[in-house]
From TrEMBL:
Belongs to the peptidase M14 family. It holds the Pfam family Peptidase_M14. Residues 5-324 form the Peptidase M14 domain. The keyword Zinc applies. One of its GO terms (biological process) is proteolysis. This is Peptidase M14 domain-containing protein.
């Protein structure tokens, strides 16, 4: 694995397997579910016998945000190769580099700016290739085969609007063709449902104190809540740790992150993973990090920026971890 180019989901998964095999005393790959198109959903778990706390990192829930799986794999690399072993010894880590592998691969092969999951793609393929779906639909007045085809072309759900915490209360859409389509129900997607169950299974230990949902772009450190302009009772604690992380991030390459709630800096966004992580899973420090850049390249961040982006993000998360130990 290198951080000079973006990698396929197969390469990412092979890297997870390699790390687990090379460090089988502390690391393991866990398959926590299956995607809409049948891909395994994989996490790397790193355990320490000394750990009293744990950190969860998820990346790639939005397919086009390629910098996020790249950053997650870099974090894994640093946990095993950086001289400072304190963060590995004092924490258990669970890292999911690609929460949405179907969408990620589709963005690599077909539509670079694809955002959502790929649920419904199998039904769409049947429709397009055999016409069975078209023939099974009783056409009504004003309804053409082409219009039914359009329904099946509007595939997928916004994985970061699909979580069952204040689902579809604002900042999401009921229309399947929208990029912020929240789904027919909360946790309609196997990617989000399986991940939520996996998180709850692991948080039973009570160890998890921090959750990082890695996104791009905008250079922001987003605090709960996303579904409302109101803030949690412990907002001061959340801001304090975020400032430590943002300062550590800036110290690497001079990149500035703004700190605030999602509605305060962007917009209302209900049904998000970090809101759920705090509101349901009970993880105190639940954040969304919007990585580089501010919009010049946007989602099309060139490969030359992978390493500096990953370096500064890791330094930020490491600083937060070190602060939580003290």
């Amino acid at each position: 694995m290198n951080w000079e180019s973006y990698h396929s989901i197969e390469e990412i998964y092979n890297y997870l397997d390699f790390v687990a095999e090379a460090n089988d005393d502390v690391a393991s790959v866990e398959v926590y579910g299956t995607s809409s198109e049948g891909r395994p959903l994989k996490a790397l778990k790193i355990k320490s016998p000394k750990a009293k706390q744990a950190i969860f990192i998820e990346a790639g829930i939005h397919a086009r945000e390629w910098i996020t799986p790249a950053t997650a794999t870099y974090i894994i690399n640093q946990l095993f190769h950086e001289n400072n072993t304190a963060v590995r010894e004092n924490f258990d880590w669970i890292i999911v580099p690609s929460t949405n592998p179907d969408g990620y691969e589709y963005s690599r092969t077909t539509n670079r700016l694809w955002r959502k999951t790929r649920s419904g793609s199998r039904a769409s393929k049947i429709f397009q290739e055999t016409g069975k779906m078209a023939r099974s639909v009783k056409q009504k007045k004003g309804r053409t085969v082409a219009s039914y085809r359009k329904l099946f072309e509007c595939l997928g759900v916004d994985g970061n609007r699909n979580w069952d915490f204040h689902w579809r209360e604002g900042g999401s859409s009921i229309h399947s063709c929208s990029e912020t389509y929240a789904g027919s129900t909360a946790f309609s997607e196997p990617e989000t449902k399986s991940l939520s169950e996996y998180i709850l299974k692991n948080t039973e230990s009570g160890k998890f104190t921090a959750y990082f949902a890695i996104h791009s772009y905008s250079q922001m450190w987003l605090l709960p809540w996303g579904y409302t302009k109101n803030t949690p009772e412990d907002i001061a604690d959340l801001k304090r740790l975020a400032k430590i992380g943002a300062e550590a991030l800036r110290s690497v390459h001079g990149t500035n992150f703004r700190i605030g709630t999602t509605p305060g800096l962007l917009y209302i966004a209900s049904g998000s993973s970090n809101d759920w992580a705090k509101g349901v899973a009970g993880i105190k420090y639940a954040y969304t990090l919007e990585l580089r850049d501010k919009g010049y390249y946007g989602f099309l961040l060139p490969p030359k920026y992978i390493l500096p982006t990953a370096e500064e993000t890791w330094n930020a998360i490491k600083a937060c971890a070190n602060e939580l130990v003290t």
